[in-house]
């Protein structure tokens, strides 16, 4: 089987978020899929199988399957367009989060994802104790959005992964207004095998509705300020979020099973 490693949400190698992509003719046993993802030891491995309308797509961290992943979807679309000979302008992926579409765009590839706005979380003190920082507000969706006032707090944050893993949430997103963009963020999911994710498309399904409301604009420029860094151009369109970014292929290889 072929395997590709693609750096997503970046225009350069060694930036953005690396994802493994494994095209399959048919689904393998779930245990084997999880073993492959664990062996890859990247935040996500995407597996795709052709279907009548495009491709079925699944995502695995090193330890669990997830219901939505942005950067591995972007990586999978790059492989379909550039390695599998797909000649169309838009790909349909059937996923655990419904049908997702990726199309060619002026900025690389554009993804159509469901919006996941968060609701206010009242127990701010618990997050301040776990993170060790002053917090403006907390919103809860699948992931927990923690908002602070200063971009430097996000950039300089030193996570206590044990404390974050002990919180009753899938992941924690830390976000603030940006100096050269609309907002910045970082993403931590240590309980799910991803201590810090370099660039997280699915997080922006919650980040974009929040910042669109707060900044009173529907088109947003975002940066994820991890060590690798990444850039996303986002838009809120009703109950959908549009995410645009670039990708670069780092590796082509063979799985020997």
UniProtKB/TrEMBL annotation:
Query: Which parts pass through the membrane?
Result: none
Q: Which UniProt keywords apply?
A: Isomerase
Active-site positions on this chain: 44
This entry's Gene Ontology molecular function terms read: isomerase activity
Query: Which cellular component, as a GO term, is one annotated location?
Result: cytoplasm
The superkingdom of the source organism is: Bacteria
**Homology family:** Belongs to the PhzF family.
Protein name as catalogued: Phenazine biosynthesis-like protein
């Amino acid at each position: 089987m072929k395997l590709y490693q693609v750096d997503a949400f970046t225009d350069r190698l060694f930036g953005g978020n690396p994802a493994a992509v494994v095209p399959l003719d048919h689904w393998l046993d779930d245990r084997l899929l999880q073993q492959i993802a664990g062996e890859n030891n990247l935040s996500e491995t995407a597996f795709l199988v052709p279907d009548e309308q495009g491709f079925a797509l699944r995502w695995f961290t090193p330890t669990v399957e997830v219901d939505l992943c942005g950067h591995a979807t972007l990586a999978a679309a790059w492989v379909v367009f550039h390695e599998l000979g797909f000649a169309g302008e838009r790909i349909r992926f059937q996923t655990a989060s419904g049908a997702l579409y990726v199309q060619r765009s002026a900025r690389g590839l554009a993804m159509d994802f469901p919006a996941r706005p968060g609701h206010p979380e009242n127990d701010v003190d618990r997050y301040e104790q776990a993170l060790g920082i002053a917090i403006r507000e907390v919103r809860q969706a699948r992931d927990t959005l923690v908002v602070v006032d200063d971009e430097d707090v996000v950039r300089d944050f030193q996570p206590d992964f044990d404390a974050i893993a002990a919180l009753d949430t899938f992941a924690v997103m830390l976000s603030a207004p940006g100096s050269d963009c609309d907002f910045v963020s970082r993403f931590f999911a240590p309980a799910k095998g991803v201590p810090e994710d370099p660039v997280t498309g699915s997080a922006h399904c919650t980040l974009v509705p929040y910042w669109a409301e707060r900044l009173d604009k529907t088109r947003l420029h975002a940066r994820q300020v991890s060590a690798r860094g990444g850039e996303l151009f986002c838009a809120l369109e009703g109950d959908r979020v549009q995410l645009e970014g670039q990708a670069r292929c780092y590796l082509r290889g063979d799985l020997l099973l």
